[in-house]
Specification:
The protein contains 18 helices and six strands. By secondary structure, the protein is mainly alpha-helical. Bound molecules: s-citryldethia Coenzyme A.
């Protein structure tokens, strides 16, 4: 929405330019700078896009100061406790919670796309057994663009719908098969009689040798973890998916790029890094040593799972996960989990330390998630794969929104050039 307000810039030489201010439903207004270069010959400069809105979006809203996260207007805490992942997926994709009939149809559509083309299993075999699952997922998801190439016109609504269902449905199968391949077990096919999270656990832990019963408590806990990781406005990996998709590239290729972006330890890779850090700390007594390292500018060590570009308050997802960690570990008889004890003490000390208080550094979504996943028997190198599995819903919702946005163009940022001015070519014998 364009408000009547404008912002006026007065440039050297007295040049003035007036720019419109746009207003959304919630959150900061924005200055529309699309005319800036034409009117002034200048760009804006914003490394890491810390103050730049890249698009209009109606999907997710974060109030970083208050620590509030809304999916299509619903509080994440409510969805995590009252809804389920596929219902939240429908909400993120369509903007409204489904009716009973809509939900049944959506669950059916996802369920009947969970199988992979039989050829795809041979892609896994090209990897070493110890390949990181995220590397495998980048490759296999990217390869889907070769298997589903003929019927993929991104301007065709039905093609986009089928690609969206396929992507959401196949991620658990791809992630579970990456794990099975790493331990030398045979692939377990998805089952249409199991719900989404239970199906994933079955593909992860079942074997052909005997029946495997999925613990409903673990399936519910994992479903909640999926909900908490489903979307998060224009984070690095979502912006990657949007940028790749803005060229008209296959959504499978765009999601493969999103997985690559999410893998970084500053982003989704932090959940694995947190558990490695807690193991490195080893005891409550050594926490002060690591807090000191995190504050030391000469030490590259950072408190993994702490801090956030947007949240300057407690990440509401971390609060839900902290409570869930207690419940799941208690149910598993692992209440005295050493890593959880260290994490809780680390949080308490850090939140009372002025370095973290001044910089508004709080636990984020990655701080407790790995502790729960590890207690559920999921290996550490699968944590970010599970984050990618859940975030695929958000990536597909944001990709569809981008394709349908009349204001969207191919993403092409500019720069502040600091290289040499024009100069003549030097023959090799004339070079110093
Ligand atoms: C996710 O964007 C999203 O929404 C991401 C995500 C999602 O759902 O998609 O929420 C998922 O990626 C969560 C974040 C997971 N990453 C980590 O936990 C890694 C540890 N965190 C940091 O690397 C950092 O906090 C970031 C990357 C998350 C945010 O970095 P910013 O916004 O660029 O902040 P910054 O690096 O400019 O830090 C500001 C100050 C600096 O100190 P000064 O130079 O001002 O003295 O805070 C310090 C930083 O050194 N700081 C930390 C710290 N995080 C920031 N110091 C110690 N430990 C930390 N974790």
């Amino acid at each position: 929405m364009t408000s009547n307000a404008t912002v006026r810039l007065t440039l050297p030489g007295g040049v003035e330019v007036e720019l419109p201010i746009l207003e959304g439903t919630l959150g900061p207004k924005v200055v529309d700078i699309r005319r800036l270069y034409a009117a002034t010959g200048m760009f804006t400069y914003d490394p890491g896009y810390t103050a730049t809105a890249s698009c209009r979006s109606a999907i997710t809203y974060i109030d970083g100061e208050a620590g509030i996260l809304l999916y299509r207007g619903y509080r994440i805490e409510e969805l995590a406790t009252k809804s389920d992942f596929l219902e939240v997926a429908y909400l993120l994709l369509n903007g409204e919670l489904p009716t009973r009939q809509q939900k049944q149809q959506f669950v059916h559509d996802i369920t009947y796309h969970t199988m992979l083309h039989e050829q795809i299993q041979f892609l896994f075999r090209g990897f070493r057994r110890d390949a990181h699952p995220m590397a495998v997922m980048i490759a296999v998801v990217g390869a889907l663009s070769a298997f589903y190439h003929e019927d993929l016109d991104v301007e065709d609504a039905h093609h986009r719908l089928v690609a969206t269902h396929r992507m959401i449905a196949k991620m658990p199968t791809i992630a579970a098969w990456a794990y099975k391949y790493s331990i030398g077990h045979p692939f377990i096919y998805p089952r249409n009689d199991l719900e989404y999270a239970a199906n994933f656990l079955h593909m992860m832990f079942a074997t052909p040798c005997e029946p495997y019963r999925v613990d409903p408590v673990l399936a519910r806990a994992l479903d909640r973890i999926f909900i908490l990781h489903a979307d998060h406005e224009q984070n690095a990996s979502t912006s990657t998916v949007r940028l790749v998709g803005s060229t008209g590239a296959s959504p499978y290729a765009a999601v493969a790029a999103g997985i690559a972006s999410l893998w970084g330890p500053a982003h989704g890779g932090a959940n694995e890094a947190v558990v490695n850090m807690l193991e490195q700390i080893g005891s409550v007594e050594r926490i002060p040593e690591f807090i000191a390292r995190a504050k030391d500018k000469n030490d590259p060590f950072r408190l993994m799972g702490f801090g956030h570009r947007v949240y300057k308050n407690y990440d509401p997802r971390a609060a839900v996960l902290k409570q869930s960690a207690d419940e799941v570990l208690d149910l598993l008889g692992k209440k005295e989990n050493k890593k959880l004890q260290i994490a809780r003490e680390l949080e308490k000390i850090a939140l009372n330390d002025e370095y973290f208080q001044e910089r508004k550094l709080f636990p984020n979504v990655d701080f407790y998630s790995g502790i729960i996943l590890e207690a559920m028997g999921i290996p550490r190198h699968m944590f970010t794969a599970i984050f990618a599995l859940a975030r695929t819903v958000g990536w597909m919702a944001q990709w569809n929104e981008m394709i349908l946005d009349p204001e969207q163009k191919i993403g092409r940022p500019r720069q502040l050039y600091t290289g040499p001015a024009e100069r003549p070519f030097l023959p090799i014998d004339a070079r110093g």
